[in-house]
Automatic annotation (TrEMBL):
GO terms for molecular function: tubulin binding. Belongs to the TPPP family. Residues 1-47 are annotated as: Disordered. Residues 31-42 have a biased composition (Polar residues). This is Tubulin polymerization-promoting protein. It comes from Acipenser ruthenus. It is found in: Cytoplasm. The keyword Cytoplasm applies. InterPro entries: EF-hand-dom_pair (IPR011992), TPP/p25 (IPR008907). Pfam families: p25-alpha.
């Protein structure tokens, strides 16, 4: 009897009862359940892109569907500096942008990474904001770029030309060209291209054409 009491006491100690009368799960069980749900303790969320890196990637893929967005070519680098007003035409020019790009990129490469991109911006910040300390100047350049996208030029509108309008205005046509169109400007087709014989018996342009038959019928009835 004493052995049975000892065993039952050990079992009651292993299974602890919580305040809500539910058994507390051990650490191993909680770890397995968290792993089965695809989560683990201390797992960090994926890093979100900063506004600067997001702008970098937008310009990196501009005009190139095969681009990965991780490298920025010289052409798009110049466009970024233009569209984001890094080039002001006074302190920073297009020549300055090209020189800095060649300086930060590797000799064997034609593009720059995001880290090299920030290095290039640091170089331009010294010229763009001369009156501010180094870190503040860099922050100001970042603000010019953050959240920006490439500017897509609009479609050029066609300018109305008086020469073109004169050549397409059928009301001003003369001679055989005039005969190819009716009063509304619609083409007559074959009738306007070929000379058709008028078998009506009336002189061309006669106002009362087609009235002869009516007159004859009217006289017979009388």
């Amino acid at each position: 009897m004493s052995d049975k009491k000892v065993k039952t006491a050990k079992l009651t100690n292993k299974t602890a009862v919580g305040p809500n009368s539910e058994p507390v799960k051990d650490k191993g069980h909680s770890r397995l359940s968290s792993e089965s749900n695809g989560t683990s303790e201390g797992a960090s969320a994926p890093n979100e892109l900063s506004a600067l890196e997001e702008a970098f990637r937008k310009f990196a893929v501009h005009g190139d569907t095969r681009a990965s967005g991780k490298e920025l070519h010289g052409k798009n680098w110049s466009k970024l500096c233009k569209d984001c007003c890094v080039i002001d035409g006074k302190n920073v020019t297009l020549t300055d942008v090209d020189i800095v790009f060649s300086k930060v990129k590797k000799k064997s490469c034609r593009a720059v990474t995001f880290d090299q991109f920030k290095e290039a911006l640091g170089e331009l910040a010294k010229k763009r904001f001369k009156d501010k300390p180094g870190e503040e100047a860099v922050e100001e350049v970042y603000k010019l770029i953050e959240g920006k996208s490439p500017i897509i030029s609009g479609v050029t509108k066609a300018v109305a030309s008086p020469t073109v309008s004169r050549l397409t205005d059928t009301s001003k046509f003369t001679g055989s060209h005039k005969e190819r169109f009716d009063a509304s400007g619609k083409g007559k087709g074959k009738a306007g291209r070929e000379e058709l014989v008028d078998m009506s018996g009336y002189v061309p342009g006669y106002k009362h054409a087609g009235t002869y038959a009516k007159k004859v019928k009217g006289s017979k009835q009388i």
